[in-house]
Design brief:
Length: about 350
Amino acid sequence: MTDRIALIDKLNEQKTLSHEEWVSLFEGFTDSDRAYAAAIAKELREKKFGNKIFIRGIVEFSNYCKNDCFYCGICRSNKNAERYRLTEDDILECCAEGYDSGFRTFVLQSGEDPAYPPQRMAELVREIKLRYPDCAVTLSIGELERAEYQLLRDAGADRYLLRHETAVRAHYEKLHPSFMSFEHRMGCLRTLKELGFQTGTGMMIGSPFQTAHELAEDMIFLKEFQPHMVGTGPFLPHRDTIFRDQPKGSYELTLFVLALVRIMLPNVLLPATTALGTINPRGREQGVLHGANVIMPNLSPTSVRKKYQLYDNKICTEDSSEQCKGCIAARMKSVGCEVEVSRGDYSE
């Protein structure tokens, strides 16, 4: 038995590791180590969720953003981005099509767009909940203040996704401009949980300047924070950012991290991300085999999907919502799973 296999066993038993143990686990891991972790993660997923995979329909309603994250293709300094905004009617039409296709969670995602302030978003959330009371509404619209999050929660928003991206301040500052604050990002996450949102966070695997030490701190943060959802995928460069020539994040390491997150947080909602499917055609299926239990197809109009390019070569930009769901159902069936038509809430 290798030292890393022993550490995986310890994680499975105790649900925590020290910083030094996490570093040892990540440095020099092998496919055998990953396969060992994947088998445990798959067993834990099946014990909690059976063979059911939750689907969430994403509506990417605006690619305007006031921020300038160095890795992001819709950052405000990218003059080549073709900007767009959907209207409320556009968004509601996406939800209607999604509902008819069997989606019971809508994820409204955008850049941090001042044209969609919290009050406007709250009115939209109320309308969606009025039309589809059996559905969950998830927001992914960035950093706000406590009163603004409260407004959205009072309007009926159920969940909120805000990736921390890295749990190390010095690393965060290498990925973001000086006007963005690591402390504010982390404070937003704490506020979201306090207000009762099912809260999701996550990180990029293989982002520029990331080492095993940063990744170890990410895992320690996830354990301490106890998110309801963890979204993690490989870093993929965008041609119009300063990181355009940086290497992609490791596909194998991303799968390893997915498995380890499932082992550490057995109840967590864990997506097999679009980025994972972009880096490898079977990435999402392999994500499920490494413990993931959520897939998030795109409900946005096909006319705008190619404009919401956080990274190059994003998949699923041309299929209709019904085609996306059918494709996902077939992919999940190929790994012994089936799509669940439900809200798919977090539960202990």
